[in-house]
Amino acid sequence: MPKIDVNKKRGMDVQVELETFWNDNKELENSLNTLLPVTWNTDIGHTTSKVSNKKTDIYIPLGKNENGYYTFDLTLGRDILIGGTMLSGVGMFRRVSLASLIKTHNPENLKVIFIDNKKLLIDFYNIPYLQSQPAGTLDDSLNIIKWCQEETERRLNILNNSNTTNISDYNKFKSIDKPFIPSIVIFITELGDLIDIPNFDTLLYKIAGMTRVTNIHFIITTQQPSVNVITPIIHDTFVNRIAFQMPYEAESKLFIDRAGAEELLGQGDMIFKNGYDDKVIHMQGLHN
Predict the structure, then answer these.
(1) Cβ-contact 138, 197 below 8 angstroms
(2) DSSP 261
(3) CATH of the domain at 241
(4) Which of 104, 261, 264, 268 is deepest in the core (most CB within 10 A)?
(5) Residue 215 region, left (φ>0) first, then alpha (ψ -120 to 50), else beta?
(6) How much is the pTM?
């Protein structure tokens, strides 16, 4: 099985790479700016005059309704699973989430990993935040997930040896022999492409179960919200979910444990389900 290059080294100047990216993605930046400079509703994240730029906060914008704007804090919520039909808003949500991470963090504090067999995030392949080359095959995807599992175990060992409870606390105590450990956000652009890998959902469970401690997070999207993709392990592991328009009531019940997403209008119309209090919020996200 071929190895994929993890711990990718950058050749260009970081600032040049970022300027090039935003120059090439003006429309995306303009869309993102409609969400970033607002006061966020406290139901999901917490109120702030703008998205926080703290090293430990990992916010992604969700959308808005009559009660205001909403954001989701991966640091508190750990992971999020997003599903819907084609053109419902899944792809735009994925791009806006990634762009917001770039906009609000520097590459030393945050790394991203792409498991992207369909190259849906190809516009982002040259950003200086990449922990590894994007995974574009099943073998590469499996290697990346196995590396993430090893990195989870490495971080847990560091915490045990340093007598700290999580990576955020560990990073507060700097020393020459203790480098900063960045958060990692893993984007899986189509879960359905990977679910046939033996025990893949179990591997995700083992990593996600330690997210709150290790600061390794998942943003997972799928346009195949069926029982073959949303397995019982996936369903129970990724409890924070966003449903865009679903084809039928059965998919809505599978994804957010209730009907309703089949009646959404598309174009960013969405329902967020908070997995920790079972609360749902209907809102409008960005759309093309």
Answers:
(1) yes
(2) G
(3) 3.40.50.300
(4) 261
(5) left
(6) 0.84
Q: Given the DSSP bridges, would you call strands 241-243 and 269-273 parallel, antiparallel or unpaired?
A: antiparallel
Average pLDDT across the chain, whole number: 83
pLDDT per position as a tens digit, 238-278:
999 999 999 999 999 999 999 999 999 998 999 999 888 88
pLDDT value, residue 75: 86
- The DSSP bridge pattern shows strands 80-83 and 59-65 to be unpaired
DSSP label at residue 244: -
Residue 258 lies in a domain: yes
Please name the residue that has the structure tokens 């997210």: 211
Residue with tokens 């009907």: 259
More confident of the two residues 190 and 95: 190
Sign of dihedral through CA atoms 107, 155, 241, 83? positive
Residue 174 placed within a domain: no
Considering its fold, how many domains does the chain have in total? 1
Q: Going edge to edge, which strands form the sheet with 110-115? A: 68-73, 59-65, 280-284, 269-273, 241-243, 80-83, 216-222, 183-188, 110-115
Helix (H) or strand (E) run with residue 150 in it: helix 138-162
Beta carbons of 152 and 212 less than 8 angstroms apart:
no
Range of the domain at 230: 14-169+179-284
H helix and E strand count, the chain: 10, 9
Helix (H, G, I), strand (E, B) or coil at 80: strand
The pair of structure tokens assigned to 115 is 């498991």
Secondary structure letter of residue 192 according to DSSP: G
User: How many residues does the structure list for the chain?
Assistant: 288
